[in-house]
Amino acid sequence: MAPAARSFAQVSALVALWGVLGCAGHEGRTLKMRTALDVGEPRAAISAINDELSVSHDTDLPKDIQGDNALLVLDRASIQQSLAQYPNSQRDFQAADKAIDMLDLAHNAGDSIGSYVFSDSAGRYVAPPYEKLLINTLNMLNYLETSDLNGARIEARRMSVLTRYFQDELHETDNAILGLGGYLAGFAYEKSGEIDEALRYYDEALGFGDYPSLRAPLASLLARGSYSSPRLKAFAGGGSGPSSGFAPAKESAEIVFVIGYGRVPHKVPERIPIGLALTLVANDIQPADARAANRLAAQGLVTWINFPTLAKERGGYEIPACMLDGKYVQLEQAADVGKEVRSEWKKVERKIILSAITRLITRMVAGEGVRRATGGGIVGLLASLGTQATLTALDTPDTRSWETLPARIAVARVTVPAGRHAIKLDARGVSRHWEVNLSPGGWAVASLQALR
Fold it and tell me: What is the pTM of this model?
């Protein structure tokens, strides 16, 4: 076969593979899991994850828990929590927490080169703030469900370390996940008898949301503790709040309800025409880069960039139901996680487009080098296009994220007489019902994660 014909055949084969390779990524690894969750089959979803991790049982961890595997373990932790497999969920959260990098603390030159030339997904996964905070927050919920106050306090302290880092180093002060974390951490410390620490966490929670069911408990805590703030005083003195429908008894107990429902938008691959991409970043891209990208598009082979975007949220606007002894309990929204996902994505979207355009230009430069090295002409042109097509096929959109986060989380807190109580929680066709038997002064945390 003549050199020109051979080069043309190679380029044709690469172009044929382009559509397959260019869009593969983490989103493809989680397709079976998401499909199972969509139809209400969490057991099948865990089996799909176990297959991807090459493990046999829900309690097994992969030999290599770095990179994408850490995200799969996180997904499994959420699903195990939805199945009330709390010890398994605790183990997965803890393992993933150690493996997933926060911000750029573990970024290295190898990651930079991979991201610059091949794909954003070639670099090490870096969790956004809301994901790192929710690892500790949801694991705190695991410990509270099993009445393990010591474990809950440990997760609360880990959350506090992250919070200080976000606030002091990144000036992140408006993350609503801190409201839910403060609510649960305050309860853990309150029931541990550490009143002032509980009040500090509740004070933080009130900075992100209004929780009427906390009003009466806070009034009692302020009378017993030494910590206070204008916000706490104003809130506790603002009335008794809406009636829960349960009159406090002399020998009473308390129940906190937590319901997560729906799923946050996950990342999906998308091809965006280079012209549209240049329009989106017109105010940010260097003129020389824009000219180079337009020259590449004019060749006719590569006219778009591989780019991740967000899919639709699932079930975030549903109305969950909480029943106690046959009566409805009013729920309060504690976290709109889907909103946090979209907000964080908006912060980095333009940078990701610029990064994709930069890789496009890098491919062009590499192709030009090949063309000159082969002496130009038709052979050089085909070899150049082949190099560019190869690198484009390797340019996998970075669709990595924690996909099994609930879109929204609602809470409630009620005072009940000591004794037996029937609980039924329902959201998006997923329900959980059981009984608790509370002693005087006792407490329980009852949760549901409906990840459909």
Answer: 0.81
